[in-house]
Design a protein that fits this description.
By secondary structure, this protein is of the alpha/beta class. The protein is built from eleven helices and 18 strands. The chain has helices at 11-21, 49-55, 105-113, 160-166, 229-233, 241-248, 256-261, 301-317, 324-346, 351-364, 368-379; strands at 2-7, 26-31, 44-47, 68-69, 73-78, 84-89, 101-104, 120-121, 126-132, 135-140, 145-148, 150-153, 173-184, 196-200, 204-210, 217-224, 263-272, 284-286. A hairpin with a 2-residue loop joins strand 9 (126-132) and strand 10 (135-140). The two termini are 34 Å apart. Bound molecules: flavin-adenine dinucleotide (FAD).
Length: 380
């Protein structure tokens, strides 16, 4: 039997644990820093068909239909004049059982953790990783020490495990953007309740999509914003009403009443990866945001976390672990280039550039060859 430690009970760690648990030859332990998994938050997540296909291998298709939504299209709007620019049929990439899906992050996490009650050890923060031949020895802040055959690192964008191994050489960087999240109550009739609405502004964009059976919508804005080094680390700043007001004033067309009506509004700085970290040990692997964190403008973070977890699982099954890193880097680079390009085009501010962008957008959303190359290569 192979003993496998997973650090972090997020989307990637829980998914690979589900895959491994199905085979009796693995004994899995998940170590989570927090004392519970927070299922209260109602924020949403988008999952493209590439990850739905993999989630269905652990019966995601059996999840209550009222918790999942299958938007057919993304409607692009100009913030300046509220005009619709064009629409993209994302359902073109769907198959009978795999459809582009939006849902509450908590519904996904709840689904992923339901069969793992015994495997998750809460209140475990990693403090040391030692590699001895084929054995990986891990120590925790509570002084517990364990030995495993494999270590899977899935502790998110600020991965402490990666810091321990890389000696803090590979750290995420502030993306010069803030993310603003909230829930739009169904009573506020401001967007298509069945599809995804993408509003393009100058130096910001926001996305609204369905997440709740009662008609509530998810709101997520990404806005360019400079922060000093001290501000980037000062999380209390994002609870300061004056600071929040200053940020929200940057959305001139959305009046104060709009934000007053958004529930659970939260603002936080977006950090992304700039480099990869290769562990020189085939028994230690990184997945999810610990492997690489993208800018959120392509909504691929969770889907890629799921894809990476599945690839690692297959490599462990086939004893081809040495292939994992190179293949994942190649796919990650493709996604990262598109995420950065999306953010650049979504945030244009010069009117002439915006005019040209909109003309291209209208053409590209109808150009099957382009869509197959830009989206199909990632989604299939
Ligand atoms: C604003 C925004 C919007 C996004 N929207 C989308 C979207 O629509 N679609 C999409 O696909 N992706 C989206 N993403 C990205 C997506 O949320 C992430 O890529 C995904 O959650 C990464 O999963 P993960 O399992 O790697 O890490 P996480 O979900 O961050 O989980 C890490 C886990 O590790 C635990 N942990 C941390 N440190 C330690 C430690 N030292 N020891 C033990 N445990 C630890 C944490 O408590 C947590 O449970 C978005 C990201 C942002 C910032």
């Amino acid at each position: 039997m192979k003993k496998i430690a997973i650090i972090g009970a997020g989307i990637s760690g829980l998914f690979i644990a589900n895959l491994l648990k199905r085979n009796k030859k693995y004994q899995v332990n998940i170590f989570e820093r927090n004392s519970l998994i927070n299922l209260k938050d109602g924020y949403g997540i988008q999952l493209s068909v590439n990850s739905i296909k993999l989630l269905n291998k652990i019966q995601f298709d059996k999840l209550e239909n009222s918790e999942k939504f299958n938007p057919d299209k993304i409607n692009f709007y100009s913030v300046k004049n509220s005009n619709k620019i064009c629409e993209l049929n994302i359902s073109d990439f769907n198959t009978e059982n795999c459809k582009y899906t939006t849902l509450k992050r908590s519904s996904l996490i709840n689904f992923l953790k339901k069969d793992l009650e015994k495997e998750i050890k809460f209140d475990h923060t990693i403090s040391k990783i030692e590699q001895q031949d084929q054995i990986v020895k891990i120590s925790f802040e509570n002084n517990e020490i364990y030995e495993f055959d494999y270590l899977i690192i899935s502790d998110g964008v600020f991965s402490k495990s990666k810091n321990l191994l890389s000696k803090n050489q590979i750290e995420p960087k502030f993306n010069d953007t803030l993310a603003i999240r909230g829930i739009i109550p169904s009573s506020l009739n401001i967007a298509d309740k069945k599809n995804i609405s993408l509003f393009l502004g100058s130096n910001f964009h926001y996305v609204i999509y369905p997440v709740s059976p009662n008609g509530d919508l998810n709101f997520i804005a990404v806005m360019k914003f400079k922060l000093s080094r001290d501000e980037q680390k000062d999380f209390s700043l994002f609870k300061d009403d004056n600071f929040i007001r200053k940020i929200l004033e940057k959305f001139p067309h959305l009046n104060k009443e709009f934000f007053d009506n958004i529930n659970d509004l939260k603002i936080y700085p977006v950090f992304v990866s700039h480099d990869f970290f290769k562990v020189n040990n085939n028994n230690i692997h990184l997945i999810g945001d610990a492997f690489f964190a993208f800018s959120p403008s392509f909504a691929q973070g969770a889907s890629q976390s799921i894809e990476g977890a599945y690839e690692l699982f297959e490599n462990i099954e086939n004893s081809t672990e040495s292939n994992f890193f190179k293949n994942r880097v190649n796919k990650t680079k493709m996604v990262n280039n598109r995420s950065k390009f999306n953010q650049f085009t979504f945030h244009l501010s010069n009117p002439l550039n915006i005019f040209v962008r909109n003309i291209f957008l209208k053409r590209f959303v109808k150009n099957k060859k382009f869509l197959e190359s830009y989206l199909g290569k990632i989604y299939r």
